[in-house]
From TrEMBL:
UniProt lineage: Eukaryota, Viridiplantae, Streptophyta, Embryophyta, Tracheophyta
Catalytic activity line of the entry: an aldehyde + NAD(+) + H2O = a carboxylate + NADH + 2 H(+)
Annotated catalytic residues: 268
GO molecular function: aldehyde dehydrogenase (NAD+) activity
Protein name (record): aldehyde dehydrogenase (NAD(+))
Entry superkingdom: Eukaryota
Broad class of enzyme this protein falls into: oxidoreductase
Start and end residues of each Aldehyde dehydrogenase domain: 28-491
Length: 501
């Protein structure tokens, strides 16, 4: 199979697009303005569906529904055990609709259909099961108190109405990663999917109705960032915003919170993660991991190991393997299971990546393979590897969010650590070595929220995930994620005959 060639037309029957309206208070409704926007198939730039373009008025309606469901409805008052039953039913329904959901993300976002079926959608269902299991198992503490005549305890209460603003690179997983712990905590919510990939979120909304969530608990407002997204960020009646996306928009969301009601904010932002290969590594395995680490999901993944540092003793061997493997990496139709990756999400992202590739060439990096768009239809880009990249280059410093690898050589362990940390980001890092002392020293020295040793993308429902530095300020997945949607109340009272009575 040649690099960059698709294996022919998709054989899969495209999913029927059933849901294109906003989901507010348990009903699918048009946007107040009746405006719509086009959802585009990145394989060919064609319109798949016209989706309701929600704006401030629609966000107001959705927030009112969520506020009412939180302040007066059964959801936050129900036992965690009862909430878990409904959340588990939701997970059952997602599992029964794996094919359809995976197909929606494939046509909407150019994501591989077979990977969606094997990984994205089962993982989304898994998030709901994991947090269903947690819904009746979080609690406060009994306090010892420093004053012996006092008694105190804490309660963990749901934070209230949550706004979830989600990105386009993992539409289903991101939906689940945010919505599931918020539901378990007892929150109600307004979800805004990315304008590039609104379809699976609307399908989830439909399933949520069937699962039996009370009206107003889950609302979905499709629309643009600068309109619907901004209205969520500055809303006076939203208690918390959970956001995944670019660092620039993360900043805007913090500013909007600061100038509105000081809502709580959790941010999961960009990255420029290092992948370090040490001299004692198996060159073939290391190259395989580095390649997957950078090109999986067409490089549109915040934890992409896009800066690959190879120790000098093994450098040539690894480079040869990387180039050989990249040339065999098959880019094509997301419905063709022999392909490793599909088109970039949209024209804007496609052009952005190609402009970074041009920067790399002009800045003097050595292009080892790739470097071009594929075909004249759709947004396909060759897996691209640059060597001799230096720390002053734009391609070294900035998140590209595409299939572009920067390759560098290092000498000592200390130098490897210094290179790894030479970034404003701190999301993830990969280490390949068999030497436990190297592994321990390096993993403790890298300033990043997730370290993967002799593996990459080792996501797990039970493992907290999030960034240091400019990569964010929260943890998702695992029990830590519940804290994003809970607040602690301390209750104190005097015991009999206490002087504090
Ligand atoms: P973005 O940050 O603009 O979009 C993410 C979400 O934020 C979308 O739902 C969007 O509608 C919303 N949004 C945009 N502007 C907003 C605003 N002013 N207020 C509230 N919500 C707003 O990301 P974009 O433009 O799609 O991609 C640009 C770059 O961002 C990518 O090239 C990549 O580097 C990074 N990115 C990182 C992601 C991650 O997983 N950390 C995911 C998506 C993008
Ligand atoms: Mg699309």
């Amino acid at each position: 199979m040649e690099n960059g060639k698709s294996n022919g037309a998709a054989t899969m029957k495209l999913p029927e697009i059933k849901f294109t309206k906003l989901f507010i208070n348990g009903q699918f409704v048009d946007a107040t303005s009746e405006k719509t926007f086009e959802s585009i198939d990145p394989r060919n730039g064609e319109v798949i569906a016209k989706v309701a373009a929600g704006d401030k008025e629609d966000v107001d309606l959705a927030v009112n529904a969520a506020r009412h469901a939180f302040d007066h409805g059964p959801w936050p008052r129900m036992s965690g055990f009862m909430r878990a039953k409904i959340i588990n039913k939701f997970a059952d329904l997602i599992e029964q609709n794996i094919e359809e959901l995976a197909a929606l993300d494939a046509v909407d976002g150019g994501k591989m259909f077979h990977i969606g079926k094997l990984s994205d959608i089962p993982s989304a269902a898994g998030h709901f099961r994991y947090y269903a299991g947690a819904a009746d198992k979080f609690h406060g503490e009994t306090l010892k108190m420093t004053k012996p005549s006092m008694f105190g305890y804490t309660l963990k209460e749901p934070i209230g109405v949550v706004g979830h603003i989600i990105p386009w690179n993992f539409p289903s997983i991101m939906f689940a990663m945010k919505v599931a712990p918020a539901l378990a905590a007892g929150c109600t919510m307004v979800v805004k999917p990315a304008e590039q990939t609104p379809l699976s979120a609307l399908f989830f909304a439909h399933l949520s109705k069937e699962a039996g969530f009370p009206d107003g608990v889950i609302n979905v407002v499709t629309g643009f960032g600068s309109t619907a997204g901004a209205a969520i960020a500055s809303h006076m009646d939203i208690d918390k915003v959970s956001f995944t996306g670019s660092t620039d928009v993360g900043r805007k969301i913090m500013q909007a919170a600061a100038t509105s009601n000081l809502k709580k904010i959790s941010l999961e932002l960009g990255g420029k993660s290092p992948f370090l290969i040490f001299d004692d590594a198996d060159a073939d395995k290391a190259a395989h991991l580095a390649l997957i680490g950078c090109f999986h999901n067409k490089g549109e993944i915040c934890v992409a190991g896009s800066r690959v540092f190879v120790q000098e003793g093994i450098y040539d061997k690894v480079v040869n393997k990387l180039v050989e493997k990249a040339k065999n990496w098959n880019v094509g139709d997301p419905f063709d299971s022999t392909c490793q990756h599909g088109p970039q999400v949209d024209k804007k992202q496609f052009e952005k990546i190609l402009s970074y590739i041009e920067h790399g060439k002009n800045e003097g990096a050595t292009l080892l393979t790739g470097g071009k768009a594929i075909g004249d239809k759709g947004y396909f880009i060759e897996p691209t590897i640059f060597a001799d990249v230096t720390e002053d280059m734009k391609i070294y410093k900035e998140e590209i969010f595409g299939p572009v690898m920067c390759l560098m050589k290092f000498k000592t362990i200390e130098e490897g650590i210094k290179c790894a940390n030479n970034t404003k980001y701190g999301l993830a890092a990969g280490i390949v070595s068999q030497n436990i002392d190297v592994i321990n020293t390096v993993s403790r020295s890298i300033k990043a929220g997730v370290i993967w040793v002799n593996c990459y993308f080792a996501f797990d429902l039970d493992s907290p995930y999030g960034g240091y530095k400019a990569s964010g300020n929260c943890r998702e997945s695992g029990m830590d994620a519940l804290d994003n949607y809970l607040q602690v109340k301390a209750i104190a009272m005097p015991l009999l005959n206490s002087p504090w009575q």
